[in-house]
Amino acid sequence: MNIALFLEMAADAAPDRIGLVCDGQRWSYARLLAGARGAAALIRDSGCSHVALLDESSEAAAMALFGAAIAGVPYVPLNYRLADADLAALLARITPALIVGDVARVERLCPSADNKVLARADFVTAALDAAADAPIEADEGDGVAIQLFTSGTTAAPKAAILRHANLVSYILGTVEFGAAPEEDAALVSVPPYHIAGIAALLSSIYALRRILLLPAFDPAAWLELAAGERASNAFVVPTMLSRIIETVDKGVRPDLGNLRAVAYGGGKMPLELIQRALDLFPNTGFTNAYGLTETSSTVALLGPDEHRAAHVATDPAARARLASVGRPLPTVEIEIRDEDGRCLPAGEPGEIYVRGDQVSGEYRERSALDADGWFPTRDAGYIDAEGYLFLSGRADDVIVRGGENISPGEIEDVMLALPAIAEAAAVAIPSAEWGEAVGLIVVVRDGHAAPADEELKQVIRARLRSSRVPERVLFAKSLPYNEMGKLLRREIKKLFAA
Questions:
Q1: Residue among 40, 104, 103, 110 nearest 69 (CA)
Q2: Which end of the chain is flanked by fewer CB atoms within 10 Å, N or C?
Q3: Are residues 60 and 187 located together in one domain of the fold?
Q4: Does residue 303 sit in the same domain as residue 335?
Q5: Strands 333-337 vs 285-292: parallel, antiparallel or unpaired
Q6: What is the Cα–Cα distance from 175 to 194, expressed in whole angstroms?
Q7: Which of 274, 308, 342 is the last residue of a domain?
Q8: 119-127 contacts at long range (C-beta below 8 A, 24 or more positions apart)
Q9: Could you tell me the residue range of the domain that residue 425 belongs to?
Q10: pTM of the predicted model, to two decimals?
Q11: Tens digits of per-residue pLDDT, 190-214?
């Protein structure tokens, strides 16, 4: 089954319903399908092996995504925020490509006659002009639908492969066709090169929910669009939610009475932040969605009722679940394994493994699945006795001090519980005595005095144990994150090295 069938079903069921709103323009499902079919004709005529997007979210992204699917060519949305050298390397890996977006930059970085480059408006115009009743070719599930370059927070980007079968499995397992009433609208503000943005397009179209695209996130613009279009659903990353709440606290308070569901993911959600959001938006249901590029998006959910129950719980174990990512989807299996690959019991920390039809676990160069179809996520965590999954960071981030494994998350959580600390990160630093030791960097909250190094060390010693006490403490004005709110620990390690 081809993912383009989702758009065709929407256009057949409700051709005149508005499917997408961007920059004031409104696109019906029928017109989006016409554009996608025209785009497929352009792609086939180009003879290119990939369809790339180097641009912000727009109707062009939707047409390129589904046009590529119809044409049977992988869709490759690129991170336009990358440095020139990094972007040039990615462009070289997908040539020959039909590339939509920044023409001047592509021609400067990858001046290949094999590429066909079109500006956003030119691509949309050409696709609509070429719109023909191009049939959707049958796909048996083995074709590559999307190639996403991983964010590369610790290493060079890998080319993750998502096949039509993976994405179809995810959508059919989580969304009911046509379930959204016509007034429903989903505000999408994550960039188009992230799996969350792609999943939002696919799931909203299959549900017949109007998509509100915000090309570049700004908290005031987000609030204005949510109120003006009466958004019912939204997806944000933690840093976005933080900036939205800061803007509301400054007195910007539009009518968000229709906003009944907000999902979040893409990075660690500070406990204080989600507690504040639950208080500020008492009529909105919050969902923590945990997933990866290689799993076609979400594999575990902490739903709205679970958020509210944990928020008001008096039992410590039940209240702690507000910091979890919930339980696996019914179509997904999750295990925690040790370094030798043994499955661990409840409460034991280890590496998270995932299995299911939506799980690709595949890269352009190789497959990371084991013989039984399990994907090693490289995320560390544990599952409690009730089946709730807790994350403790990347397995690669574990600090090995004298043979003892230390999770940065446990140290960071202690720091973030202090009123004076706004952000905190623990990383491994070289140690002559222990091999590795803990390096701690913190950001002091506005209006608070910076605690002394020894004060922070005493807090960690009292709440954890001496092996968790940092050997060095640094103070910073801010911590480095990527655009999806993931902490860039490699950049923090550079600060300690300097």
A1: 40
A2: C
A3: yes
A4: no
A5: unpaired
A6: 20
A7: 308
A8: 120/55, 120/58, 120/60, 123/39, 123/42, 123/60, 123/63, 123/64, 124/35, 124/59, 124/60, 124/63, 126/38, 126/42, 127/35, 127/36, 127/38, 127/39, 127/42, 127/63, 127/67
A9: 398-497
A10: 0.86
A11: 999 999 999 999 999 999 999 999 9
Determine contact, residues 272/244, Cβ cutoff 8 Å.
no
Per-residue confidence (pLDDT) for residue 365, from 0 to 100: 86
Sign (positive/negative) of CA torsion 191, 192, 193, 194? positive
Structure confidence at residue 155 as a pLDDT band (50, 70, 90)? low
The span from the CA of 146 to the CA of 174, in Å, is 19
3 state SS of 139 = coil
Tallying the residues shown for the chain, one arrives at: 498
- State the helix-helix crossing angle for 238-249 and 219-228, rounded to 10 degrees: 80
- Tokens linked to 214: 């915000």
- The CATH number for 136's domain is 3.40.50.12780
State whether residue 84 is helix, strand or coil. helix
Relative orientation angle of helices 29-46 and 59-71, to the nearest 10 degrees: 60
- State the Cα–Cα distance between residues 346 and 101, nearest whole angstrom: 48
* CATH code assigned at 376: 2.30.38.10
Same domain, yes or no, for 58 and 136? Answer: yes
Evaluate whether 492 touches 473 at the Cβ level (below 8 Å): no
